What we know:
- The protein has about 450 residues and is of the alpha+beta class.
- The chain is built from 13 helices and 8 strands.
- Helix 5 (about 125-130) packs antiparallel against helix 6.
- The chain is elongated.
- It starts with a helix and ends in an 11-residue tail after the last strand.
- It catalyses: ATP = 3',5'-cyclic AMP + diphosphate.
- Its EC number is 4.6.1.1.
- One of its GO terms (molecular function) is ATP binding.
- It comes from Mesorhizobium kowhaii.
- Belongs to the adenylyl cyclase class-4/guanylyl cyclase family.
Amino acid sequence: MKTHIRRLVMRFNAVLQAVLRRGIPQDGVASGRRVYLVNVVALGAASICLFFCGFNFAAGAVHHDRFLAINFVASLLFLSVPFTNGFSNAAAAYLLLALMFAIVVLLALLSGRDSGAHFFLISAGPVLPLLLGTRRPILVAALTFVAISTFLVLEFTLPTLVFPGRPWLPQIRNPFSESLDIGFDDSVFILSMFALEAILACTTFVAFRLAESAEASLQREYARSELLLQNLLPNPIATRLKERPDSVIADKFDSVTVLFADVVGFTSSAARKRPEELVAFLERIFGEFDLLAEKHGLEKIKTIGDAYMVAGGMPIPAEGHTNSVANMALDMIKVAGRLTVEFGEEVAVRIGFHSGPAVAGVIGRRKPFYDVWGDTINVAARMESSGVPGRIQITPEVKRVLGASYTFEERGTVNVKGKGQMPLFFLTGRSTNDPGVGGIR
């Protein structure tokens, strides 16, 4: 039984939400909230009309057939508003306002001042901006003026009550004063006030809920954009860019260490892999490298095809960046060996790095990114391109900085493009004989 009731409630809620969301555009958040409010007010007005249908019938008021018909037809007309929203949001909003004005005035003229029907016109002030939005202030002000003026005219010209209650309608006895017994006319007025407050409270509540939902969505989008910005740019650079969006972000560093790594044989391997396999392959490798960069406190600069670029000592200058890059390079070789076993095919990485001065900054109006320039970067790139798969090639400057804390293998003199003959070395590991840091830069 409970399950059956729960299903009915869920089905009713699904139908209700479908009606309330009728006509909401896919690309308009603000207009979507107004459409939702129009549907809420329309359903609320229809519910009030149906309630008064039942009340008039139960009370047995004279001429109740007339009011039953008016309220019943009005409820059907209000229910047509959400479906009108499916064709035109503007037409639905104006239809709702026209129906509310016409039906309230008609009921007030037929039932008299003491029924309180014309008090619904007072709701124009708070309700109109919610239904029409804030971009039509003149229209909202004009309609509010018309509604309040009509209310005042009805208040001062209508007779007290056009229809009396039937003699058999019981009165509610007031224990404090017999002169304040509540009869049919008082009941209509009280119910009208409750209905007015109900529709105002419901509209305001829904408006605030929609506003809170919109704010929460904005917060989520802001958090996503912040995360995206932090992934695209280093945190200090992202902060500077947000604080001064039109400024040029450029910094000069006296000493940085730049590493390049290339996945050897990737081009031939790519020809044999499906697109999703290719992307997953690179994602797995570079994902591991990203973790290493974070572990060693280094800044990932970018990936270019199957090449990976990382730097130490920037964007915030720090001591020991050459050692950090060396440690990451050694870990990258270990990761490549582990991934070779995992993939069942050789993952060979050629690594080279160099230390020296550089300039870094943010470039690009669309898809801006943080990059670094200078001869140091060119030499680091040459260390990688002229290197050997599975080895880490370095310059004499890097060897001097690393000192006795690491072990090296002399490669000999190599003709480096743009630099001529250079004596180069392979970094082979950390020294076990000298635990000192030695040569930290």
